Amino acid sequence: MLFAELIVKGLVYGCMYAMMAVGLTLVYGLLRILHIAHAGVFALGAYMAVTVTNATGSLAFGFVIAAAVSAVAGIAIYRLAYQPILHHSAFVPMVVSIGLFIVMQEGFRLIFGAYGIAFDDNPWYVAHVDLAGISLTYVEIAMVVMSVVLLVGFGLFAGLTRAGIGWRATVTDPQMATSFGVDPVRVRYLNFLFGSALAGIAGGLVGLLNNYVEPTMGGAVSYKALAIVVLGGLGSVRGTLIASLVLGVVESFGAIYLADIFDRDAIGFLFLIVVLMVRPQGLLGRR
Amino acid sequence: MSTLGRIDDLHISFGGVAAANGVSFSVERGELLALIGPNGAGKTTVLRMVAGILRPDRGRVFFDDHDVTALPAHARVRRGLGFTHQIVRPFYGFSTIENVMLAAGHDRTASPWRAIAGRSRTKARQKAQAFLDRFGLGAQAEQSPRTLPLGQRKRLEVARAIALEPKLLLLDEPLAGLSSVEALAVADLIRALPGQGVTIVLVEHNLSEVLRVADRLVVLDAGKVLAEGAPADVMARADVRQAYTGVL
Amino acid sequence: MSAYIASLVSVIGINLILALGLNIITGFCGQVSLGHAAFYGLGAYTAAYLAKLGAPLPLTLLAGTAMAGAIGIVVGLTSLRVRHDFLAVTTMGIGFVFLGFVRKQKWLGGELGISGIPGPGLDAVPYALLIAAFAMAVAALSLWIKLSWMGFTFDAVADDEDAARTVGVNVSTYKLTAFGIGTALAGTAGGLYVYFARIILPDTFDFVQSIAVLTMVVIGGTGSVWGVFASTIALTLLPEVSRAAADYRLLIFGAMLMLVMRFSPGGLAGLVHRRRPA
User: Fold this and answer.
1) Stretch B168-188: mean pLDDT, rounded?
2) CA angle at residue A172 from A171 to A177, to 5 degrees?
3) What is the value of pTM for the model shown?
4) What is the pLDDT of residues B12-26, one digit of tens each?
5) CA-to-CA distance for C105 and B143, rounded, in angstroms?
C-alpha cells in the first residue's frame, strides 16, 4: 500500500505545484521573465488567508480576500516593477524579480513578525478520511479539488472564450495577435491577475496544510515551481501541468528512498538537473 | 587546379520534408563557385551543412583533404573554412574595428590558455584596420555596427570573415537587401577574393551579379543538383530555365 | 589593527573573492548563476573536513579550490546544454542540491555543520592580511583577464554566441573556463572562511548568500572589476554602519537590486561610463 500512498501524496503536492507553476509559465510565455517574486505573492496569499480568517472567523472569506489581494499585487508587480524594464535583456527583469522577492519576504517579516502565524481554528489539517486505505486530510483533498476546478476553469476560459483565445494568440505570436485587435497590455494584466490569484490560493492552502504561515514559506515552493516550469519546457501550460504532477510524485518517492542522502527540497532540483542533462529542452519542450 | 572542398551525398530533412536530397559537388582551389537555384531549393541549407551549423542526416563533407563531417562550425573555421550569415551577425556590443580585431587575432583566441597569456591588441588592430580599409569601412572603425547602414554591415560581415584568413569562404546572400550600386561594389570586392587566395562558395539571388562574378555555377532544385558548369552553358539549359521560371 | 577591524577585513576579503569570481561567470562571460554559494560551500566543507583530519592550510585551501572548480565545470556543462533562462534555474537548483546533500550527511555534521576546526596557525591580524592579499590577487587576476584576449573573447561569447562561432571561438571551452575560474575562486573563499569562522553551518551557503553575492556584482556593475570591488566593500560595510542597516540588510539589498536595475542596469560602473564599463 505504501506505493499507492506515495503516488497519491505526490499527486496532491503536484496539484499544489501546478497552481504555482501555471502562473509562472504564463508570465514566462508572455514576457520571458523568470518571475521569482511569484514566491512573494504565494506568501502574501497565505498571510491574507490566515489573518482574515482569524479576524472574521470565515475561511471562505479569508480565501476570497487572499485571491483578490494576490491578484491586485500581481497586477501591481507587472505595472510597477516589470513594465518599465521590459526592453532590457532577460537578466534585468530577473534581477528585479529577485530584488522584489527579497523585499516582499522582508516586508512580511516586518509586518507579521519573524515567527509564523497559525490558523486559530483549523481542524481540517488533521481530520482525515480513508480512501481505499490511503488517508488524506481535508486540506489535501481541498487542494486537489481546488486545483482541478481552477485549472479546468482556466482551460475552458482559454479555449472557449474570446478573451481566452486572444490570450493564447498573444502568447503564441504577440504581433499577430495585436494586428487582430487583441490588446496585449490587457492580456498581460489578465495574466498576472489570474496567475497571482492562483498563487495566493495555493499559499492559503499550504498555510492550512501546515497550519503555519511564515515569511520564507514562498521560497522552496516557488523555486520548485520554477524548476517545474523549466521541466515543462518553459512556456508550455500542458507541459507545466504534467511536470507538476511528475515532480510531486518523484519528490514523494525520493523523500522516502533517498532520505539518507538528500532532503526533500533537493530532490526536485536533482530531478530537474538529471532531466535537463538528458533532455535540454525540458520534458515536453521542443528544441 | 586541385579540389579544396567536396560534399558527398548530403541529405537532411526537417519534419519529414527533405531539404537536401543527395547533394554532391566540389569546389576547386581559387575559384568562385556560385550555388544558385529557386527559392526553397536548399541552397542555404547545404551551405549551413558545409559550414557545420547543421548536421546532415547522411553524407560527408571533405575540406582540404580531411573529412570534417564530425567537426563543429568553430573547428572548421579554425581549419580555414569560414562562413558568413545571411542576416548579418556583428557583435553589437563591439565597435566595428573590434569586430574585425577579434577575427584578426584568431591565433590568440584559439584556446583559453593562449587568450589569457596575451594582452596586446596593437597588431590585431593594425591588421583589422587594413581589412576595414580594403572593404571601404576604414572611416567607420570606431562606430558601433548599430549605426552602420545595411550595406556597410554586409561588408563588415565579409571583412570579419576574411580577417580569419580562410582558405574557403562560404557567403550566404551577401548582396541581399542592397541597392544595385552597393551590390555592384560588394560583388566587386568578392570577385577580388579568389585572386587573394580565398576560394569562394557564394549563395546569391541576385543573378545578374552572380553571372558577372562567378567562375562556375551549381544549380540546386528541390534538394538536388540540377546542373553544374560554366555560367553561360548552365544558364542556356532548358531545365535550369524551367526550374527558375516554372515554364519552358 | 584591532580584532574588530581584522574580522571586518577578513569578511570583506572573502566577499571580494566571491563577488569577483561570480563577476567572471556572469559579468565577463554572460552566464547567469544563482548558485554561487554552493561552490563557496563546497570549498568550505572540503577545507573543513580535511583540516579536521589534520591537513595543513595550503593543502586544504588548494583542495577546496580544486573541488569547487571541478564541480563548477560539471555545472558549466549544463550551460552548454540548456537555454539561457534554464541556466538561472539550474544553477539555483545546484544550490539546493548542495544544501540538501550536506544537511543529510552525518559525516559532515548534518544540520549542525562542522565545528572545532583548527586555526590557521596565524593570529587574527596576519590572517586577515593573508585574506586581503588573496582578494587583491583575485582583483589583479580579474583585471588581467578583462584586458587580455580572454576577456575580449568572453565579451564576444556574452554578446552573441553564434557570431562567436563564426570567428572560430570554441564557445563551450570559454564558458567552461569562466565557470571553472569563477567557481574555483568561490572554493578558495570557502577555504579561507573556514579558518576565519572555525565553524561552518549549512545555512551559511544558502540561496540568500548566492543572492547577496549577486547583489554585490549587479550593484557594482556586471562585468566591471572596479565597480564590483567598490560595491562589495560598501555592501559588506553596510550592516556595520548602524543597527538599522544591519536589521534591514536584506530589505536594503532587495530594494537596491530593483532600483539599480530600473535606473542604471549597468550598476555603479554604468553611472560612471555610459557604455561598456572597463
Assistant:
1) 93
2) 80
3) 0.91
4) 998 888 889 999 999
5) 57
- Residue A164 binned pLDDT confidence (cut-offs 50, 70, 90): confident
C167 Cβ under 8 Å from any chain B Cβ: yes
What's the farthest any 2 CA atoms get from each other in chain C? 56
B3-245 CATH? 3.40.50.300
Whether residue C278 is predicted with pLDDT greater than 70 in this model: the reply is no
Nearest to A50 by CA among A207, A241, A219: A207
Phi first, then psi: what are they for C149, rounded to 5°? -65, -25
User: What integer pLDDT is reported at residue C217 of this predicted model?
Assistant: 95
Q: What nine digits make up the cell of A85?
A: 524594464
C-alpha cell at A282: 525540458
Residue C174: name the closest of B111, A157, B87 by CA: B111
Please check whether residue C85 touches B, CB under 8 A: no
**Whether pLDDT at B175 is above 90:** yes
**Looking at residues C6-20, what average pLDDT do you find?**
97
**CATH of residue A247:** 1.10.3470
User: Could you state, in order of their start, the residue ranges of all structural domains in chain C?
Assistant: 3-205
Alpha carbon distance A98, A40 (integer Å):
10
Q: Return the minimum-mean-pLDDT range out of A33-47, A121-135, C217-231.
A: A121-135
C positions 22-51 inside 8 Å of A (CB): 32, 34
User: What's the total number of domains in chain A?
Assistant: 1
Considering only CB atoms, which chain A residues are within 8 Å of C77? 277
CA C206, C207, C211, C213 torsion-angle sign: positive
In a domain, A285, yes or no: no
List, for residues B199-244, the tens digit of each pLDDT value. Answer: 999 999 888 899 999 999 999 998 899 999 999 899 888 888 888 7
- How far, in Å, CA of B5 to CA of B168, rounded? 8
CA nearest to C232, candidates C267, C276, C270: C267
CA distance A189 to chain C (A): 20
What angle is formed at CA A127 by the lines to CA A121 and CA A131, rounded to 5 degrees? 150
Name residue B156's amino acid: L
B116 touches chain C (CB under 8 A): yes
What was the pLDDT predicted at C273? 60
ipTM of model: 0.92
Residues A284 and C76: their CA atoms lie apart, in Å, by: 23
C81 touches chain B (CB under 8 A): no
Three-state secondary structure call for residue B154: helix
Q: CB distance from A261 to chain C under 8 Å? A: yes
Separation of alpha carbons B133 and B123, rounded Å: 15
The share of chain A scoring above pLDDT 70, in percent, equals 98
- Which residue segment(s) compose the domain that A190 sits in? 2-278
Domain membership of residue A101 (yes or no) is yes
C80 touches B: beta carbon within 8 Å: no
Could you please report the per-residue DSSP string of C152-195?
A: HHHHHHHH-HHHHHHTT--HHHHHHHHHHHHHHHHHHHHHHHHH
**Sorting pLDDT into bands at 50, 70 and 90, what band is C277?**
very low
Number of CB atoms found within 10 A of residue A3's CB: 8
Residue A106 lies in a domain: yes
The pLDDT value given to residue B49: 95
Q: What is the pLDDT of residue A175?
A: 76
Cα distance from N-terminal residue to C-terminal residue, chain B: 36
List of chain C residues whose C-beta atoms are within 8 Å of the C-beta of residue A31: none
**In this complex, do A34 and C104 lie within 8 Å of one another by their Cβ atoms?**
no
* Grid coordinates of A192: 498576472
CB contact under 8 A, C168 and B105: no
Residues C258 and A77: their CA atoms lie apart, in Å, by 12
List Cα–Cα distances, C58 to B205, C63, C64, C135, C195, in angstroms.
65, 9, 10, 16, 11
Higher pLDDT, C84 or C224: C224
